[in-house]
Design goal:
Layout (H helix, E strand, L loop, with lengths): L2 H7 L5 H9 L3 E3 L2 E2 L13 E3 L2 E2 L7 E6 L21 H4 L4 E2 L8 E7 L2 H8 L7 E7 L5 H9 L2 E2 L8 E2 L4 E4 L5 E6 L6 H8 L4 E9 L2 E2 L9 E3 L2 H10 L2
Helix pairs in contact: 1-2
């Protein structure tokens, strides 16, 4: 792979910026200043920019703690999107959210450039688990929990579609004003609509796990990090 393409694919420099950096001696390949921007870089060679290693990834997988009020989209006029929370170099990598969280739902959003994996993970037949923390306006009764877990029929109303929810798991807190809910699907405003079906209202909602990967408790709202090797392996297992 050409050095300028390598730097561009790593989301560090554009090809034009790479050529300028080479002229200034800022890029080293195996400890030697790169002579030209079009030299070939082989797998395993050490590439640095200003002494900082540049790691090429075929695909990028990022865990983000989405804050309230941010849209899970690549572009939305007039709205702040999850991509706006990333540094400029990462926004060059054609990243997109794998699935969506509502604007006012917080928590784990996976950002990736791997379209095939994203499609597989989101396919209904995969039954990928998503775990949410929720609070509600009124305590959930035992009957409410049984109804939610068994599947509820949601009318279209002002929403996009009418459907019967798949069985799920609801683990209420001791005060029954909150808890965890485990879904294997992700319809539009699904949890909000499920609670409305049992005459309740969501007051807060956060995704805390996706495909068996827990949201890093060290990540504050708006922060992100790359998935670890173990987390990438779990994600790919989820897509099998």
């Amino acid at each position: 792979m050409r050095l300028d393409k390598y730097m561009s694919a790593a989301g560090v420099l554009s090809r034009k910026e790479c050529a300028a950096a080479v002229k200034r001696g800022r890029i080293l390949v195996d400890g030697i200043p790169a002579a030209k921007a079009d030299i070939q870089v082989q797998p395993g060679q050490a590439v640095t920019l200003d002494g900082v290693p540049v790691i090429y990834r075929e695909y990028t997988y990022i865990m983000m703690h989405k804050p309230r009020g941010v849209v899970s989209a690549t572009d939305d006029p007039g709205e702040r999107t999850v991509l706006d929370l990333l540094p400029e170099q990462l926004r060059r990598l054609n990243l997109f959210p794998c699935g969506r969280l509502d604007k006012n739902t917080t928590g784990f959003v996976l950002l990736t450039s791997d379209g095939v994996l994203s499609h597989r993970v989101l396919a209904p037949k995969r039954h990928a688990e998503k775990v949410y923390r929720f609070t509600v306006k009124f305590p959930l009764s035992e009957d409410d929990v049984k109804t939610l877990e068994g599947g509820v029929s949601l009318s279209a109303d002002s929403y996009a579609e009418e459907f019967l929810t798949a069985p799920c798991t609801v683990l209420p807190d001791e005060d029954r004003l909150g808890g965890r809910i485990v879904l294997t699907e992700g319809k539009y405003h699904q949890i909000k609509r499920m609670m409305e079906a049992v005459h309740n209202q969501i007051t807060s909602l956060a995704r805390i796990s996706f495909c068996g990967i827990d949201l890093d408790p060290e990540l504050q709202p708006g922060e992100w990090r790359y998935l670890t090797a173990e987390e990438e392996a779990q994600l790919k297992k989820c897509a099998e």
